[in-house]
Design brief:
alpha+beta, single chain, three-stranded antiparallel β-sheet, 4 helices, Ribosomal Protein L22, Chain A
Length: 154
């Protein structure tokens, strides 16, 4: 008996971007839903967001065409960045010297999983909770003194 396939991948190779800079963005979207991932990538100010968002769109289109899954049920289950080839050039400098220039590339793989097809989703994967929510935060009013009077700077 074959197991039903619930995960689809999209791969992009030789992106002219450092692997460390791409990992900074990939770490933020791993484990999140498809719609939340697109919102995060739209609002992040990094250059790596554009090729990663195209890759997320491609993975969702692959899931839609291969499995017929709805985009609302997709979760980024696997996201990895590997180093690619490095192009080496030389920049001519004064007095016949030269400095090496390394143009680094990377390979990015995005895997999306359809949670409606997976029975064990609740046990294995859970959506990331926002880090900024803390149940112990309290509001501090700076314009009220310890007795409760309103403090005016005038």
């Amino acid at each position: 008996m074959r197991k039903k396939k619930t995960e689809v991948y999209a791969l992009r190779r030789h992106i002219s971007l450092s692997a460390d800079k791409a990992r900074r963005v990939i770490d933020q979207i791993r484990g999140r839903s498809y719609e939340e991932t697109l919102m995060i990538l739209e609002l992040m100010p990094y250059r790596a967001c554009s090729p990663i968002s195209k890759l997320v769109y491609s993975a969702a289109a692959n899931a839609n065409s291969n499995m017929g899954s709805n985009k609302a049920n997709l979760v980024i289950s696997n996201a990895e960045v590997n180093e690619g080839t490095t192009r080496k050039k030389f920049k001519p400098r004064a007095r016949g010297h030269c400095y090496p220039i390394k143009r680094r590339t990377c390979h990015i793989t995005i895997g999306v999983k359809d949670i409606s097809l997976d029975d064990e989703y609740e046990q294995i994967y859970s959506l990331k909770k926002p880090r900024w929510k803390n149940k112990y935060t309290t509001m501090i009013y700076h314009d009220i003194d310890s007795i409760g009077r309103v403090w005016d700077k005038k």
